[in-house]
Specification:
This protein is an alpha+beta fold and about 290 residues long. Helices cover about 40% and strands about 10% of the residues. Helix 4 (about 115-125) packs across helix 6. The termini are far apart.
Amino acid sequence: MNQDWETSKIGPRQRRDARGGDLAELRELRQETRELRRANSRRDPRQPRLAAEQRTPRYERSRARHVRRRRSGRRGRLLILAGLAVVVLALMLDKAPRTTQAFRLPGATTLAGMPLGQRIVAIANSQVRYSTDPANSYCNKFSAYWGAGVSSCGGGELAEEWCADFAAWAWQKAGIAVPYGYGPGDLNAGAISFYRWGLDHGTWHPADSGYRASPGDVAVYGLNLGAYPSAAHVAIVVHDPPGQRGPDVINGDGDRTGFSVVETGSEQFRADTGHHQDALLAGYVSP
């Protein structure tokens, strides 16, 4: 009987020891699980996230400064890139020929205080660097102003070689009553029409006559008075200094700096057109 009582006392103790071992193993397993979860929740393997109790005010301030520096650096880089883009765009716009809409005439008050010849020059000069659009075409606004040329351009422009249209436009804008057409005494897209105008108005001056051109005159190049009279090119005179072979001019439909542009020419005694390079100065027409 005593032996049975001792046996009954030992059994439960052994069972408790076994349960205690199981609980210890369970605690160890839970601890390992927590550690694995913490490892998986790290943002950066090199910089594990700090526990909330470890995030001191000093740490938070340092982290905030770091974030601000990163944002400030990013904004600075964006501003620098934007500034560079603006500079590049400005340079491109400065070098590129401007479009039709970018060219305004001098103000009416400014023009009113000028002599006729200076008004013509100022108006023509306001269009320097204008180019046709498309750039490899003759689509231009000066021919369209007169309603002359081929209507294949779009945008209200018309296409034809337009050095004479440009010169007639500058004269008309300066206040000269220009009859534009294809009848006797009219100006039109033909450069020869300015020669005929000069004859009709007594203002034609051959290049070898000793005449010194005035601002606003039209220089005529490549004059051919055969069975079918023609001229190669015309340009508006800016200045005709003594001793030069030709005047300083403004060319409509020139092609020295681009295809079919308004451009200046210095001492121009030859036509400023690639297909009329041998067309020499023939004379001048005064308005």
